[in-house]
Specification:
Length: about 240
């Protein structure tokens, strides 16, 4: 059996993986799904957040879980923006985890930021329409009056979507602006699995496949799911994560 450290995406928290964690734990695995520091914090707390800090946080959770499991394999997985954290953690501490999983996530090559990748792939008007700035450029929030469910989780059970949307948090902006720093010797030494979601309206499938092409070498698993496969296809996503061990 294995351990999974799962890093949530923008505006979410570790709680978004609850249904997935239940499935993986029923299969005998151990799941840790923390909420990243600074999420939903004060202006000062969110302004202080860096991608490096989040990478250290994720790597420490991997180390702690590996120690708990007595050397069993540990997979570090990230959803959406969480992919930036996965890459940063693996580059800084490749010894802390055994493999990486990107769940319709940002898997960027060295020297590129999330903001710069957005410029490459062009606008996504429905997604951009649900985002509002907070504290100037320090953070963003999801407009509570918008139809965010139609962007994040249009294929997911409505009751699950209704439960998630009120829990969304303010998202620090700085990590999206920072360039990813990865090398073949460190990040590239870890086996990677990319779980692409063909019905994703947040990071469309064309954007996902562009990232896969820009960072070749990942095992690719395709799900007919929206941007929230932990809600719309949790069993299939659990299968995909097991394949990443």
């Amino acid at each position: 059996m294995a351990g999974f450290v799962l890093i949530h995406g923008s505006w979410h928290g570790g709680w978004c993986f609850d249904k997935l964690a239940t499935i993986l734990e029923a299969r005998g695995h151990t799941v840790v799904a923390p909420t990243l520091p600074g999420m939903g914090g004060t202006e000062a707390e969110m302004a202080a957040v860096t991608l490096e800090d989040w990478g250290e946080f994720a790597a420490q959770h991997c180390r702690d879980l590996k120690a708990r499991l007595g050397g069993a394999p540990v997979v570090l997985g990230g959803h959406s923006r969480g992919g930036l954290v996965v890459s940063t953690a693996a580059e800084r501490h490749p010894d802390a985890m055994d493999s990486l999983a990107y769940i319709c996530a940002m898997m960027l090559p060295a020297g590129l930021s999330r903001v710069e990748f957005k410029e490459i792939v062009g606008p996504n008007a429905p997604f951009e329409a649900i985002i509002q700035p907070l504290y100037g450029s320090v953070a963003t929030v999801i407009d509570p009056l918008s139809d965010a469910g139609a962007v994040f989780a249009q294929l997911s059970p409505p009751e699950d979507v209704a439960a998630v949307l009120p829990r969304l948090l303010a998202e620090p902006s700085q990590p999206r602006r920072q360039k990813i720093m990865v090398t073949p010797e460190r990040w590239g030494s870890k086996p990677r699995t990319y779980v692409e979601c063909t019905q994703d309206r947040t990071i469309p499938i064309d954007s996902q496949r562009k990232m896969i092409a820009m960072s070749p070498g990942a095992q690719v698993i395709t799900l007919e799911a929206d941007h929230s496969p932990y809600l719309s296809a949790p069993e299939a996503l659990a299968d995909a994560l097991e394949a990443a061990i």
